[in-house]
Amino acid sequence: MYSELFEQPDSIRKTFQLELSNMEKISERLTAVNRIYLVGCGSSLSTAYTAKDALEMVTSLNIDVFTGYEFFYNKKLDNENSAAIFTSQSGETADTLAALRKANELGIYTIAISNEGDSSMIKEANDSIVTRCGREEAILGTKTYVTQLSSLYQILFSASDYDRADELLEELHSIPDLMEDIIKKTEEENKKLAQDLKDEDVFYCLGSGPNYGLAYKLAMTMLMEGALKHSCPIYSSEFRHGLIERAEKDVPIIFLDSDYDSDEITQKAIDFSENLSAKTIVFKLQDYSNINNLLSPFILVIPLEWFVYYLAHYNGEDPGSTRHIGKVRY
Question: For this protein, what is the EC number (predicted)?
């Protein structure tokens, strides 16, 4: 995981260098569809949540998110002028692959995004994007996460009616340079944070808008898979519907704050937690970059990766391996 964390910037650069023209072709076709389905599992599902929420804040694109399992068994899929984008590190994730095959049967325009160029998903989709990360070994999905998310943003914002799309995409292409700087600057502070919290067993992870997808990844595939800590992702607005009763003294709660309009409720939750003396951990986009806040997950994921890496380390765990999960899920 340590080495792959450092490979994230170049993975994005290489993906754009080799796949941008292909992405532009796909974007052009997507401008004519009425509905877009985003399908994935684990980290790939988190990129779908983030892309959907980012786009729905500023565009009129009609987007639905499904796990592969849910998509496969859904009886109300719209196959009239629809498209489906399937994301998978391996391109062999069983339920995502089954969902892609169902979409093909229904005549839905299919796009696969995977890190494995010879995978079943890449071969069977109508169009495909191969993320250029090299082999990824660590279970957390560092470089495949950022390249999948970069690909989704490039394809979907190019196909959208967002009036600042060109500006946002220009900033997207500057992300690798920003990442290199943030990777260097955030290791030590998050190493210390991990040491301070190494004995905690349960973490709650909250974010709004595009940051909910990152909160989902943080809880599901970083803290639980990588650091073997119990964790739960929650939309910030749902704080007052449940977690408010568990936000007690010394309970660790991680907030992702990027000054979205919806982060008004995030700040209220932070204030409430601090008043209760909960262990309130806030990752604010403004502390790292002044980039368009729709791109926040690309920035905040870096300090979170360092935090989880060292949290595992201080508990004697390997953040790149698992006990029960295979990296390629057949």
Answer: 2.6.1.16
pLDDT confidence band for 138 (50 / 70 / 90) = confident
Domain boundary among 114, 139, 172: 172
**In the block, which residue shows the tokens 């986009």?**
285
- Note the Cα 165 to chain centre separation in Å: 20
End-to-end CA distance of the chain: 22
Q: Are residues 136 and 209 in the same domain?
A: no
Q: What's the rounded Cα separation, in Å, for the pair 43 and 141?
A: 7
Residues 167 and 308 in one domain: no
Domain boundaries, position 157: 2-172
Paired residues of 26 in beta bridges: none
Report the pLDDT value the prediction gives residue 137, as an integer from 0 to 100.
Answer: 85
Mind listing the pLDDT tens digit for each residue in 78-122? 889 999 999 999 989 899 999 999 999 999 999 999 999 999 999
Closest CA to 319 of 184, 137, 189, 133: 137
Distance CA 148, CA 83 (A): 17
Do 188 and 168 belong to one domain? no
**How many whole angstroms separate alpha carbon 207 and alpha carbon 284?**
11
Angle (deg, nearest 10), helices 143-158 and 296-314: 170
As a whole number of angstroms, the distance between CA 259 and CA 283 comes to: 11
CATH label of the domain that carries residue 166: 3.40.50.10490
Q: What is the pTM (predicted TM-score) of this model?
A: 0.96
Q: Residue 234 corresponds to which amino acid?
A: I
CA atoms within 13 A on the CB side of 226: 29
* Whether the predicted pLDDT of 329 surpasses 50: no
Q: What is the mean pLDDT of the chain?
A: 95
Q: Once rounded to an integer, what is the mean pLDDT over residues 28-51?
A: 96
- Tell me the C-alpha distance between 264 and 268, whole Å: 7
Task: Supply the DSSP symbol for 227.
Answer: S
